[in-house]
Design goal:
Layout: H1 3-15, H2 29-32, E1 39-45, H3 52-67, E2 72-73, E3 76-84, H4 89-101, E4 106-109, H5 113-118, H6 120-126, E5 130-132, E6 146-148, H7 154-163, H8 174-179, E7 188-194, H9 197-210, E8 215-216, E9 220-222, H10 234-241, E10 247-250, H11 254-266, E11 273-276, H12 284-288, H13 295-302, E12 305-309, H14 318-331, H15 337-356, H16 362-369, E13 383-384, E14 390-402, E15 405-417
Parallel strand pairs: 1-3, 1-4, 4-5, 5-6, 7-8, 7-9, 7-10, 10-11, 11-12
Antiparallel strand pairs: 2-3, 12-14, 13-14, 14-15
């Protein structure tokens, strides 16, 4: 059994809970090879606050890759050192400084685009590679030591903006439109999003790709991380619905997504909702789902929620079968795009450190990152582009029943971006 085939077998058997069977394969070069020198990897994630759930997913994804690879990267035993990200440039800088003092070979993680942009200069000056595994602001340009396994924030909006004009025109007449089961191109779209730079990147991507097929109303920005409650978005929603839009485009995630969707329905909206897939990632659907016969589930089934994302847990490829099975076995829930991107951060570091040789330095690892080529990912194959972000597929997903649970079901591939 070759080294690479053995590693793939270990991953698959681990995902199935049968790693003990590997002993039956007998000894080979991997069994007898002395591991390389120990290395440290720095993980920057929030341990509290509104981004903690995403931070937990990122930590889970990276740790899962390590657990399926004998706690090694590129043949070197790994010590994972975690630092608190916080929510601004100052706290991010403190995390970077602490990890650099620990002597880490590379950094990974980072949830907040604000933090990512804020630590840019520190990372570049330290010449230590950072594999970012969440959102990347479009303003983060011309970097040498910052790579991202996630996406650029304009891309999810761009994918939807390219999709909607391809839909057929709606039948004439109000009754025909309301009763039509098919999906039609909206003529008027109301846009809602938190008031922050991430939302502006997402909306710019959507607007630039939409090409004015229909009428886009000016975005209505809601407070960023408001004191969430039953009426947190009601005023903004009423303002947006006053123009009687055919569809809503929005950008929310986590608890904010749950509150926004509930209040949108409470204000009487019954049309399709289009959004980047963060709207329904993680625990959002379980919090919206009030069971068979419930009003929440009935509204979601009747009124479409359509999202675009670079990953879905139901993708049918061998890499995702290993990853999703192992993640469900470990955490008793389906993985999200956040966990997947962090798992892939482990993959690219594994490849780059192996290429860097027996005694890798941060600069050698950074150089090797540009040579790793195609990554066999749970999202489908991808590779880094010139801006050090993935060139990858984007998928159209609809919220549908999967058995007894509401789930994000992939409908089709949309585009390759990056």
């Amino acid at each position: 059994m070759s080294q690479m085939n053995r590693r793939q077998a270990l991953r698959l058997l681990a995902a199935l809970g049968t790693t003990g069977l590997v002993a039956g394969c007998g000894s080979d070069s991997e069994d007898t090879t002395t591991p390389g020198s120990p290395i440290k990897i720095g993980l920057i994630v929030p341990g509290s606050g509104p981004n903690k759930a995403v931070g937990d997913e990122i930590a889970n994804g990276f740790q899962l890759f390590l657990s399926l690879n004998d706690q090694q990267l590129g043949g070197h035993p790994v010590t994972l050192v975690t630092a608190e990200e916080g929510d601004d440039a100052k706290s991010g800088q403190a995390a970077v400084d602490r990890l650099l003092k620990e002597g880490v070979l590379a950094l990974t993680g980072v949830v907040s685009p604000t933090v990512m942009f804020g630590i840019r200069d520190a990372v570049e000056q330290a010449r230590v590679p950072l594999i970012g595994s969440n959102a990347s602001p479009t303003s983060l340009q011309s970097v040498v030591y910052i790579w991202r396994t996630s996406y650029v924030l304009s891309e999810p909006g761009q994918a939807l903006g390219q999709y909607l004009p391809q839909l057929p025109d709606a039948p004439k007449g109000k009754a025909a439109r309301e009763n039509a089961a098919a999906e039609y191109a909206p003529e008027k779209i109301a846009i809602f999003a938190p008031d922050n730079t991430s939302s502006r990147d997402v909306i710019t991507g959507f607007k630039n790709a939409y090409e004015q097929r229909g009428r886009l109303r000016d975005p209505i920005y809601t407070p960023d991380l408001p004191n969430l409650g039953k009426a947190a978005y009601s005023t903004a929603i009423r303002k947006g619905l006053a123009g009687k839009p055919d569809a809503v485009f929005c950008h929310y995630a986590g608890t904010a997504a749950v509150q926004f969707i509930k209040q949108l329905y409470s204000e009487g909206y019954r049309g399709p909702i289009y959004a980047p897939g963060f709207l329904t990632e993680g625990a959002v659907l379980s919090q919206l789902d009030d069971g068979e016969g419930g009003e929440g589930r009935a509204e979601i089934q009747k009124n479409r929620i359509i999202t675009t994302l670079n990953y879905s847990a139901d993708l049918n490829n061998s890499a995702n079968q290993v990853f999703a099975s192992a993640y469900r076995k470990t955490h008793n829930t389906s993985p999200t795009t956040y966990a997947m991107a962090s798992y892939d951060a482990g993959q690219v570091l594994d490849k780059a450190i192996r290429l860097a040789g027996e005694h890798p330095t941060p600069q050698q690892v950074n150089l090797a990152l540009g040579k790793i080529g195609q990554v066999d990912s749970p999202r489908g194959a991808w590779q880094f582009n010139q801006s050090r972000t993935p060139q990858q597929k984007w998928y159209l997903r609809k919220v549908q029943l999967d058995g007894r649970m509401l789930s994000n079901i992939v409908v089709s591939e949309l585009a390759t971006l990056g």
